[in-house]
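Page 42, continued from yesterday. The earlier attempt failed because a stray header line got pasted into the input along with the sequence. Redoing it now with the clean sequence only.
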Amino acid sequence: MNYRTLKPEKDGLFCERIFGPTKDWECYCGKYKRVRFKGIVCDKCGVEVARSKVRRERMGHIELASPVSHIWYFKGTPSRIGLLLDLSPRNLERILYFALYVITDIDEEARQRELMHLDEELLKLDQNLDEQVVELVDQLKDRRDSDILKSRNRIDEDRVEAEARREQELETARQAESDTLAQLRAAMGQAADEDIIFEPTGQVIVAEGDVVTPKHLESLEQKAEIFRNDIAENARREIEATRLENDRDAERTKLEYQGQIDSAQSRLEVERVSNKQRLEQLRRDLEGLKKMDLLQEGRYRELKDAFSGVFRASMGAEAVRELIAGLDLDKLAVDLRREIGSTVGQRRKKATKRLKVVEAFRKSNTSPEWMILTVLP
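This time it went through. Structure tokens are written below.
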């Protein structure tokens, strides 16, 4: 560049032969002037006859890795982007500075499919939990019945053992009675040399020196009968005590398993209610999703994990550009006029401001997307 005239020098870095003329429809040397020479390359200076603005188009451009918004458009008074999108300056700034997500698109078909899926899950939830309750209760009842059966088997075993002991004791008593009876008969009518004792009880039937008589036989029979009855009664009491103890064990087992059944049913019911509330909340969240909704980072992650294919949300100027690109200015103008006619106060005032911006874009045939820059010269 010439430092005095600030015009590009021939064969310099900003030469007009490379980037085009500095004056509309005029070459560098002045041989060709006027629009009728449009497109001709001067044979003297080598400059193409064209508009001067081609220099900007032909110079280098920087393609931005991410779109940006000029501060004029979102922080000006009023905020043009904010009015177009009906966003407060603070929320718009948080979106542009990557502090908030904004929903840019909703796939309605995917939303309906997801709603149907949630309805199916809600329906299956009750069925599955009912099946789980029945299965668990059946398992616990089977275990309870098995334990009770084992207890009853123990009763039978204890009874058999008690009866076996009773028979053994009775046999011992009969043998002792037979032996004592033989002693008495052998000494009948004679004085006893020593005490004749009924061994099982230790009772003296005939004292030493006493004459053995038939009454002693009757006495032995009575004592032996009493002893046998005692054996039978003791066996009966033992069996009854064992039966009562096992009955108590069986009742305790029933109560314990009933407690487990009640606890399991309560736990599954709590789980059912919790899962139902979770699914119903997901359904409300899904139904409530709207374009232009603002989301914090945590909330965005939750919804993205739950409904990844239903909506798109992003942040920064790229998100704002996508929202602006989706605007139908003609429809928006009609809606704003309708709102102005049907509202009063602040809403009407705000709608009027928005309509002015919309009409300015429509009349100038300027695209609102141009407020978001993707290329810099």
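Notes: The mean pLDDT is 85.
Reminder to self: strip header lines before submitting.
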